[in-house]
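User: What would this chain look like folded?
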Amino acid sequence: MILRQFLHSDPVGISYLFGCGGKATGAVVDPVGDIQPYLQAADNAGMRIHFVIDTHVHADHLSAGRALADAAGAAYVLSSAAGVSFPFKGVRDGEVLPLGNVTATVLHTPGHTPEHICILATDRTRADEPWFVLTGHTLMVGDLGRTELAASAEEGARQLFRSVRKLKGLPDYVEVLPGAYAGSVCGRRLSGKPWSTIGFEKRHNQAFAIEDEAEFVRFMVAEIPPAPPEAAKIRAANSGITAAAA
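Assistant: Here's the prediction, encoded as structure tokens.
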């Protein structure tokens, strides 16, 4: 297994390169900014990028996903539920993206956005059990992502509750690799530590620990962080509706 984490400060976010070193196949998740660091990291690891995955249509930054996919000759991957105006590889819940001895299983986790997905990674040279989950803006260290684009904040929170139950079903040892950390506008109590485990978040993440749906909805709608000022323009640009965000 090859895994590289890229921490960004403007905007605050996290990208990943992971895959199979032995079979030289990899994927990049949630790329931001200049595409050269991802291409160079893959080259340094002796890997070809086969998939570029955005966990959702972002509203806090311009995605580098399509540009990186074009440069690498890779498939650009989004949830099949994504409403965008350009061709992409649509994936559904339970679908597996093959990466040599590594498998990347898609988990549809709506709530932050309706099309949000997480990626569950397994290294079959080590074990048949999953090793880590790339959680985007659904589950972060210390909090869950604010709800966006649902018919109401309450409906978004109900969707998120069901997604949280899916993630709670993973073994406690599974590592959580989120799409943001402290300083991001996508959560309220985010840690500066950019990784965790399912078990630790069950015990110490207040939102993730709530078991009752009504209590969860009340908690999630009580302090919704404001969206970035240019959120609508950025999401439109990432959807292909406009050429670029102002």
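The mean pLDDT is 93. If you want, I can go into more detail on any region.
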